[in-house]
Write a structure and sequence with these properties.
Layout (H helix, E strand, L loop, with lengths): L1 H33 L4 H52 L14 H36 L3 E6 L3 E5 L1 H6 L10 E2 H4 L3 H11 L5 E7 L5 E10 L2 E2 L4 E2 L5 E8 L1 H36 L9 H29 L8 E3 L1 H18 L3 E5 L7 E3 L1 H17 L6 E8 L3 E8 L6 H4 L11 H6 L6 H11 L3 E7 L3 E9 L3
Parallel strand pairs: 10-12
Antiparallel strand pairs: 1-2, 1-8, 2-3, 4-5, 5-8, 6-7, 9-11, 12-13, 13-15, 14-15
Helix pairs in contact: 1-2, 7-8, 8-13, 9-10, 10-13
The structure holds adenosine-5'-triphosphate and magnesium ion.
């Protein structure tokens, strides 16, 4: 670069100088020839002048070339610096260039390049941090999010998306979505979104043992045309969002079931009461063989109605946060003693053994003794209720780091896996007819769970059909 510039400038300079010298030489010779001198003297004078012109030419040419060399060296060095600066900028480094040398056009160029670099650097930095922030938000979202480009390739997805749609952990960016996502309903929505359809919604269910339901929303992405800042007609991709609605659907079902269940719970005893009352009025009152039995049936059904009403009111009070709770240190051993004693009466009638094993050094819990008794009594009543003749019931308690866990195990009929997570719902019974027959309301475990949660603990069940069940709940230790 430097050599080229130098040789070009030197060539132009020397040519111009040579031309000038040539013109001076011609003019000098013409002037000398005008004098009336003999030819030999004229020739001697001309060659003398020519020699001087040549010497001057050589000196001026050498000086000029040296000056040009110096100028071209400095110029090239500054151009090289600009070149390096632009290469740096291309690689993403926007540090400004130092402005040195004379204040010429090149300096102005450097100054405006520096200003551009600063603006570019700022824009790129803010774009980068915005991208990092968006990607962090998308990655941490519980909703599954996937982005598909116009060629139907999956270009972005978060962990929730991969978990829900079972995407292999080694699936790379930009794979065809059909190879990665196997769910036909989701694929259909993606294709429709890529065709430009808006507000696409669907539902999918995943899992085999534990079903999970997701609401799927797919929307087209329309890139903005930078030239005229208009949104393009054809989508440049699609975004899919998967939202877990399992709990929502469950609650909807529970609410619907609740109304149906309450009506049903009241209808059966009311029909019986009405029926037997009419029978008695219709003449059975005089039937001394049956009238007492009919009245007993009416009393039993009325008692069942009263139980359901009591339990419902209790649940409503708990759910409204109006339960009276008097927290204080409670001895688990005392509660267990009292409850097992009550359960023993019914257990003995069925030939069921009840054993309690409470460590003597068990710390007290922070609870309300009356509520704690209600929970344990409920679990023991269920254990007696759902354990056949000659079975065994055990009550264990042990202290953890912050809580005490009490467990009631039985050798009863057990609970199928699918019902285990639902038995804590209001009115849910594995065998509703059988439970109702023995006066159950299906609200006992629901009340127990609410009480345990109000006391700051947790309740759970493990069970195997035909082998028995183990209900355990934990309550925080007293400070
Ligand atoms: N120990 C157990 N063994 C087997 N099944 C059980 C056991 N405990 C509870 N269940 C099942 O869970 C259902 C709900 O129990 P829950 O105590 O809430 O209602 P319930 O016993 O039917 O009536 P109640 O409201 O009078 O207690 C029962 O109907 C029964 O099917
Ligand atoms: Mg019960």
């Amino acid at each position: 670069m430097r050599a080229k510039l130098f040789s070009k400038l030197t060539l132009i300079y020397v040519s111009l100088l040579a031309l000038l010298c040539f013109a001076v030489d011609i003019a000098a010779e013409r002037d000398l020839r005008q004098f009336d001198l003999n030819r030999q003297v004229q020739d001697a004078l001309v060659s003398n002048v020519r020699l001087r012109i040549l010497i001057i030419f050589l000196c001026v040419a050498a000086l000029g070339a040296a000056a040009l060399l110096l100028f071209s060296m400095r110029f090239s060095a500054r151009v090289r610096k600009i070149q390096e600066f632009l290469t740096r900028m291309g690689a993403g480094e926007f540090r400004p260039m130092s402005v040195e040398g004379p204040h010429d056009d090149l300096t102005l160029l450097i100054e405006s390049a520096n200003a551009t670099a600063e603006r570019l650097g700022h824009t790129i930095r803010s774009l980068g941090s915005e991208r990092d922030r968006s990607s962090a938000i998308l990655r941490s979202m519980v909703e599954g999010v996937g982005v598909i480009d116009a060629r139907e390739h999956l270009v972005f997805w978060n962990r929730a998306f991969a978990d829900i749609l079972n995407i292999a952990p080694d699936a790379g960016d930009g794979q065809p979505v059909i190879e990665v996502v196997r769910n036909t309903a989701v694929l259909k929505l993606i294709r429709a979104a890529l065709k430009g359809e808006d507000a696409l919604k669907g539902n999918i269910t995943t899992g085999i043992v534990q079903l999970r339901m997701f609401a799927v929303t797919a929307a087209p992405v329309r890139a903005t045309d930078a030239a005229n800042s208009q949104i393009g007609e054809k989508p440049s991709g699609a975004v899919v969002v998967l939202h877990d609605v399992t709990e929502l659907r469950r609650l909807e079902r529970v609410r619907q079931d609740f109304v149906a269940n309450v009506s049903h719970e009241f209808k059966t005893p009311l029909t019986a009461i009405q029926g037997f009352a009419e029978t008695l009025l219709g003449g059975a009152l005089e039937d001394h063989k049956n009238n007492r039995r009919f009245l007993e049936i009416i009393r039993d059904h009325a008692a069942q109605l009263a139980r359901v009403t009591d339990d419902l009111l209790k649940l409503a009070r708990i759910e409204a946060g109006k339960l009276e709770v008097q927290l204080g240190p409670v001895s688990v051993a005392d509660v267990v003693d009292l409850c097992t004693e009550t359960a023993l009466l019914r257990a003995q009638r069925k030939g069921i053994v009840v054993e309690a094993e409470i460590p003597p050094d068990l710390p007290p819990v922070r609870a309300d003794a009356r509520l704690l008794r209600e929970v344990l009594q409920n679990l023991l009543d269920n254990a007696v209720q759902y354990t056949p003749l000659g079975g065994k019931i055990e009550v264990h308690a042990e202290a953890g780091p912050c809580e005490v866990t009490v467990a009631v195990s039985d050798t009863g009929i057990g609970i199928p896996l699918a019902d285990q997570e639902r038995i804590f719902e209001r009115f849910y019974r594995v065998d509703a007819a059988r439970s109702r027959e023995v006066g159950g309301t299906g609200l006992g475990l629901s009340i127990a769970r609410h009480i345990v949660e109000t006391l700051g603990g947790k309740i759970s069940v493990e069970s195997e059909v035909g082998r028995g069940s183990r209900f355990s709940f934990s309550i925080p230790k007293a400070a």
